[in-house]
Write a structure and sequence with these properties.
Blueprint: H1 16-19, H2 21-47, E1 62-68, H3 75-83, E2 91-98, H4 104-112, E3 118-123, H5 133-145, E4 152-156, E5 160-162, H6 166-177, E6 181-185, E7 187-188, H7 193-198, H8 200-207, H9 212-216, E8 230-234, H10 235-240, H11 253-263, E9 268-272, E10 277-279, H12 285-293, H13 303-326, H14 329-354, H15 360-368, H16 370-390, E11 394-395, E12 398-399
Parallel strand pairs: 1-2, 1-4, 2-3, 6-9, 7-10
Antiparallel strand pairs: 4-8, 5-10, 6-8, 11-12
C-alpha cells in the first residue's frame, strides 16, 4: 500500500482583525479614549450648572431678539411662551421676519395682539455681501434693541420653547456667574429616528471632551461652548465687540461670537437649560442633513482638521464595537469594554439633556446605536465638505457661499 497522506490540519483562523497586533493596539487605544470620554461625561453631568427657576424679579431692561425666516409653524408658540414670562419687569421682544414667504409675520401679529412689549418687523432685503442671513438678522435686531436702554440682550431661535421663568433665570445666571454671555443649553427634542441618532451628538461632543466647569472659567477661545438657540448677553459686552458684525460671515456665529468675547477679555459660559428651555431643531432626515451640512465643513478648521477628528472618532467609537463582534481574545475584550464605555457616555449625556422625562429603555436603545450615530456624523461631515467645495451649501433658500 502506498503511504497514506495525513489529512491537512484544520486551517488556522487567519482573520487579520483577530490576529493583528496593530488592530489590537488601535482597539485598546480607542477603548481608553471611550473610557476617558465616559469619565468626563459623568463628571460634567454631576457638576455643571443649570438654570434655576427665579425667585426674585429682574428690574433691568431685557430685550429678546428673534430672527425668523419661514417659521410660521414654530414662532407663535415661542411668542406665547414669551408673553407668559414672569419675573421680568422690563421685557421687550423684537421679531424680525427675514424675508419669509409663509406668513410668519402675520402669524406673529395674531399672537401678539396689542401687547406693547412686542414689536414685529418685516424685511425683504437680502443680507449684505459676505454676511450670513442669521448674522445679518441678529445685527438688525440688535440695533433696534439698543435704540432704547437695555441691560441684557437675548437671541432666541423661533423653534425654542421657554418655561415661564426661563428669561429671568438666564439673566440671573449672567449676574451670578460674572460671564458676559451665558448659553443655556436647551433640551434637544427628537421625534424621528434620524433626529434621535444625530441631535444628541451636539451635547455629547462637548460633555465627553471638555471639563465644563474649567472651560467656563477659561478665557481660551478653543474651549468655548455655545448654542445659538438661546444666548443671553450682557448688553455692554455685546456692544463692545461690535455685536454680530464681528462674526458677519460665520456659519457658526454662536461659537464665533463667544470666541470673540473671550479674545476681548470676557468670560462666557454654557449651562444646562435645567428643564426651562427645550428645542426641536430639525424635523426628520432631510432637515437634519440640510442643517448639519451647512456648517460642519467649518467645524474643525477645514478638510485636514475634519480628517483628524473623524479618524479619532473612528478609533474611539467604531473600532471597539467592530472588535467586540468579530475579534477574539484580548482584542474582543478591549472592544467590548470600549463599546460599553461609549454607550455609558451617551446614556449619561442623554439623561443630563432630557432628565427623567425620557424612558430609560429609549435612552439605552439610542445610546447603544452610538456607532451608527458616529457613521452618520462622519457622512454628514464629508457631505458638508463636498457641498462647500462645489459651492452648493444652502440654508432656507439662501446660498451660504461667501460672495
Amino acid at each position: 500500500m502506498g503511504n497514506a497522506q495525513s489529512p491537512d490540519p484544520a486551517p488556522r483562523n487567519c482573520c487579520v482583525i483577530e490576529n493583528s497586533v496593530s488592530f489590537r493596539r488601535i482597539v485598546a487605544a480607542g477603548s481608553v479614549l471611550s473610557g476617558l470620554a465616559a469619565a468626563a461625561t459623568i463628571v460634567n453631568a454631576a457638576t455643571m450648572r443649570a438654570l434655576v427657576r427665579p425667585q426674585d424679579d429682574i428690574d433691568d431692561p431685557v430685550v429678546v431678539c428673534i430672527p425668523a425666516r419661514d417659521e410660521v409653524a414654530t414662532l407663535p408658540d415661542l411668542l406665547r411662551d414669551l408673553r407668559a414670562q414672569t419675573h421680568c419687569r422690563s421685557l421687550r421682544v423684537l421679531v424680525l421676519d427675514d424675508g419669509s414667504v409663509d406668513g410668519t409675520a402675520d402669524a406673529a401679529m395674531s399672537v401678539v395682539g396689542s401687547d406693547r412689549r412686542f414689536t414685529i418687523e418685516r424685511s425683504t432685503a437680502a443680507p449684505p455681501a459676505g454676511w450670513t442671513g442669521k448674522a445679518a438678522a441678529c445685527h438688525v435686531l440688535a440695533e433696534l434693541a439698543c435704540a432704547q436702554p437695555v441691560r441684557f440682550i437675548a437671541f432666541v431661535d423661533a423653534d425654542v420653547r421657554l418655561d415661564t421663568g426661563a428669561i429671568a433665570a438666564a439673566v440671573s445666571e449672567v449676574r451670578s456667574s460674572g460671564a458676559s454671555l451665558v448659553s443655556p443649553w436647551p433640551r434637544q427634542e427628537a421625534n424621528t429616528l434620524a433626529e434621535a441618532l444625530v441631535q444628541p451628538l451636539l451635547r455629547f461632543s462637548w460633555m465627553s471632551t471638555l471639563p465644563v466647569r474649567v472651560a467656563n472659567a477659561s478665557y481660551m477661545p478653543s474651549t468655548v461652548v455655545a448654542c445659538g438657540q438661546f444666548l443671553m448677553f450682557d448688553a455692554d459686552a455685546y456692544r463692545s465687540i461690535g455685536g454680530h458684525r464681528s462674526v458677519f460671515g460665520s456659519p457658526t456665529e454662536d461659537l464665533d461670537i463667544a470666541r470673540v468675547l473671550r479674545r476681548r477679555g470676557h468670560r462666557t459660559a454654557v449651562v444646562s437649560g435645567g428643564g426651562l428651555v427645550r428645542c426641536r431643531m430639525y424635523d426628520g432626515w432631510a432637515d437634519v442633513r440640510e442643517g448639519y451640512t451647512r456648517w460642519l465643513w467649518s467645524a474643525f478648521g477645514g478638510p485636514a482638521g475634519s480628517v483628524a477628528v473623524l479618524s479619532a472618532v473612528s478609533v474611539a467609537y467604531l473600532a471597539p464595537p467592530v472588535a467586540a463582534v468579530v475579534g477574539s481574545g484580548r482584542t474582543r475584550m478591549w472592544g467590548a469594554a470600549g463599546y460599553a464605555a461609549a454607550v455609558l457616555a451617551r446614556a449619561v449625556s442623554a439623561r443630563a439633556d432630557s432628565g427623567p422625562e425620557t424612558s430609560v429603555s429609549r435612552t439605552l436603545a439610542v445610546s447603544s446605536a452610538h456607532p451608527v450615530s458616529a457613521l452618520i456624523y462622519a457622512a454628514l461631515t464629508v457631505d458638508s465638505l463636498r457641498r462647500r467645495r462645489n459651492g452648493t451649501t444652502r440654508w432656507k433658500g439662501r446660498s451660504l457661499v461667501a460672495a
